[in-house]
Design a protein that fits this description.
Elements lengths: L1 H12 L5 E2 L2 H6 L9 H7 L6 E3 L4 H14 L3 E4 L16 E4 L6 E4 L4 E4 L5 H10 L2 E3 L11 H7 L6 H4 L8 E7 L7 E5 L15 E11 L3 E8 L2 H13 L5 E7 L19 E8 L3 H10 L3 E7 L16 H9 L3 E3 L2 E2 L5 H12 L3 E2 L1 E6 L5 E5 L2 E3 L3 H13 L3 E2 L18 H9 L15 H7 L5
Parallel strand pairs: 2-4, 3-4
Antiparallel strand pairs: 1-2, 5-6, 6-10, 7-10, 8-9, 8-10, 11-13, 11-14, 12-13, 12-18, 15-20, 16-19, 16-21, 17-20, 18-19
The structure holds flavin-adenine dinucleotide.
Flavin-adenine dinucleotide (FAD) binds next to strand 3, helix 6, strand 10 and helix 10.
C-alpha cells in the first residue's frame, strides 16, 4: 500500500529521492521531543508515518495534498521536529510532509519584515537579518535547528519575549500563506488578525508555505551571569530589571539552586548553592547592570560580549526549554510545566507551591511581556516526576492558586492552553480541511465524540 503511494508521489514530484520510505528514516522523521513528558512518552512511543515527502515549492505542496485528499491519506507537516508535545508525531500514519527543503529567505525588507519559506531555520533568519540591521523579535532556545514554519505551527516565544512579547503578540507575524487540504488545494493568504486562525494550530488547518515575519532593530548584546545567595534576592533583582523600561534586554532567566548544578559546561559560573540569573543585555548597559547587581548583593560570575549563535558560552542554551534538557541529562525523572505567575502575588504563589510540593518543583523563571504590554513572571519550572496523578495534582493546585498552566503533557491543541477561545483555529480547520486529514487527532474539537470522551470544553 505505502509502496504504491510512494511511487505515485515520486512521480508527482518527478524526483524519487524526495520520497523517503526507509523505516528508520521514516521513524526518525516521525518523532519530536515529546519524550520530555513521561505522560506523552507512554502515549506516543511507536507512532510513525508511512512515508516522508519533501516538497521544495508551494506548487509541490498543492500537488501532494491534492493526491492525499483523493487517497484519504493523513498528512502531518514537519519543520525540524523540535516540538515538545508530539505536535509533529503522526497519530494515524500517512504522509510526513517534511518542509525542511523549502528553506529560502526571499527578502529582508527595508521595513524590517523577513519574507521566507517555512523550512528556513530561525538561526539563518537571525544571521541574515543582522547583516542589514535587524534581528528576530523573539525565538525559541532551539533557534539553531528550529524552522520558522514549525515555530508558527507549534511554538510560542522565548529569547526576546521579555521585550517584544510572544510570537502571537504585537503583529509579529504580519502575514502568512497556507495551502488547504481540499480536492483542489488553494493558497490562502492571511494577514493581520487572520493569522491567528493558523498560528499554534499544529498544522491541523493548513500547511504554511510563506511567512512575513516582523523583525526588531538589531542591538549589540552582551551576556552576563549574576549569582545570589538566596532565590528571593535573585528573583527581586531579575524582576526589577525585567519590568523597568530603562533596561534594554533580550533575556532574563532566573534559576534556583540546584538547577545551575545541571549546566555542566558552565558550572564554573555557578557557585555551589547559589541562585543564578542569565542576562542578554545591551552592551551599552553591561557596566551599569554589573554595578546594580553588586549593589543588590549579587556576584557577577561571568560577563562577555555576544557575537551571535556561535558565542561560547551561549547562555541561551541553558534557558527556556533547554533548562529541562540539562535537568533530564542529570536525572531522567525530571519533567516540566509551563506557567504564568501573577505579577502581584507571585511570591505568595511560589511560597504555596513550595509548601505543598517541596523540592518536587524547582523554580526556573522566564520573564516575558504579555499581549497587553505588561512584563510578567513566566516560568518553566522543573518537576520531579513520580506519577501522572501527582503531576495532575500539581497542575490543579497551580490553577487553584491563580497560576496559569499551558499543559505540556497533552497532545492536542485545545488541551495545551493556547487554543483560542474564539475557536478561529477550529473554524479554519472546518473550511480548509473538511475531511480532517491534516495531522488528525490533534484538534479534538473537530471530532465531537472525542471531546465527549475527554470532557474538554473549549467551544
Ligand atoms: P516542528 O516540531 O517540526 O513542528 C511544530 C508543529 O508545527 C507541528 O505540529 C507541525 O505539524 C507544525 N508545522 C511545522 N511546519 C509547519 C508548516 N509549514 N505549516 C503548518 N504547520 C507546520 N518553543 C518555544 O516556543 N520557545 C522555546 O524557548 C522553546 N525551547 C525549546 C527547547 C528545547 C530543548 C526543545 C526540545 C524545544 C523547545 N521549544 C521551544 C519547542 C520547539 O523547539 C519550538 O516550538 C520550535 O519553534 C519548533 O520548530 P520546529 O521546526 O522544530 O517545528
Amino acid at each position: 500500500m505505502s509502496l504504491n503511494h510512494a511511487i505515485a508521489l515520486a512521480s508527482i514530484l518527478g524526483d524519487e529521492s524526495r520520497v523517503l520510505t526507509h523505516p528508520q528514516v521514516v521513524e526518525r522523521l516521525s518523532r519530536d521531543f515529546y519524550w520530555y513528558s513521561p505522560v506523552l512518552r507512554k502515549r506516543l512511543d511507536g507512532k510513525v508515518g508511512d512515508l516522508v515527502v519533501q516538497p521544495v515549492s508551494t506548487h509541490e505542496v498543492q500537488s501532494v495534498l491534492r493526491y492525499c485528499h483523493v487517497q484519504n491519506l493523513p498528512v502531518t507537516a514537519r519543520g525540524a521536529g523540535t516540538g515538545n508535545y508530539g505536535q509533529a508525531v503522526p497519530l494515524q500514519g500517512g504522509v510526513v510532509l517534511d518542509l525542511a527543503h523549502m528553506d529560502q529567505i526571499e527578502a529582508i525588507q527595508p521595513d524590517g519584515v523577513a519574507v521566507c519559506q517555512p523550512g528556513v531555520r530561525l538561526g539563518t533568519i537571525e544571521t541574515e537579518a543582522r547583516k542589514t540591521g535587524w534581528e528576530l523579535r523573539c525565538y525559541p532556545s532551539t533557534i539553531v535547528k528550529a524552522s520558522v514554519g514549525g515555530f508558527l505551527g507549534g511554538g510560542s516565544g522565548g529569547i526576546g519575549s521579555v521585550a517584544h512579547g510572544g510570537l502571537r503578540d504585537f503583529n509579529t507575524v504580519r502575514a502568512l500563506e497556507v495551502v488547504t487540504m481540499e480536492a483542489e488545494p488553494q493558497v490562502v493568504r492571511h494577514e493581520g488578525e487572520a493569522v491567528h486562525q493558523i498560528l499554534h494550530a499544529w498544522g491541523t488547518n493548513g500547511v504554511i508555505t510563506r511567512i512575513w515575519l516582523a523583525l526588531a532593530p538589531a542591538v549589540e548584546w552582551s551576556q552576563c551571569v549574576v549569582a545570589f545567595d538566596h532565590f528571593d534576592g535573585a528573583f527581586d533583582f531579575s524582576e526589577g530589571i525585567s519590568t523597568s523600561d530603562s533596561w534594554i534586554k533580550r533575556l532574563v532567566t532566573t534559576f534556583e539552586w540546584p538547577i545551575p548544578s545541571f549546566f555542566t559546561p558552565v558550572k564554573q559560573y555557578a557557585p555551589q548553592g547559589k541562585s543564578l540569573i542569565f542576562f542578554l543585555i545591551s552592551s551599552d548597559q553591561l557596566v551599569a547592570l554589573e554595578a546594580a547587581a553588586r549593589e543588590a548583593q549579587g556576584e557577577v560570575t561571568y560577563s562577555g560580549s555576544y557575537a551571535g549563535l556561535r558565542t561560547i558560552p551561549l547562555l541561551s542554551d541553558y534557558t527556556w526549554n533547554h533548562t529541562t534538557l540539562w535537568a533530564l541529562k542529570t536525572d531522567p525523572a525530571y519533567t516540566y510545566l509551563q506557567c504564568g505567575f501573577d505579577p502581584v502575588t507571585v511570591r505568595d504563589q511560589m511560597r504555596q507551591l513550595r509548601e505543598r510540593f517541596g523540592q518536587e518543583i524547582l523554580f526556573h523563571m522566564e520573564f516575558m511581556k504579555n499581549g497587553s504590554g505588561q512584563v510578567i513572571p513566566g516560568a518553566i519550572p522543573l518537576v520531579y516526576y513520580t506519577t501522572e496523578e501527582r503531576l495532575n495534582e500539581m497542575i490543579s493546585f497551580c490553577r487553584e492558586i491563580g497560576v496559569f498552566v499551558a499543559n505540556p503533557h497533552v497532545n492536542n491543541v485545545e488541551g495545551g492552553g493556547r487554543y483560542r477561545a474564539d475557536n478561529v483555529q477550529l473554524l479554519a480547520k472546518m473550511r480548509n480541511d473538511p475531511k480532517g486529514l491534516l495531522n488528525p487527532g490533534k484538534m479534538i474539537t473537530f471530532h465531537p465524540e472525542e471531546v465527549a470522551a475527554t470532557g474538554t470544553t473549549t467551544r
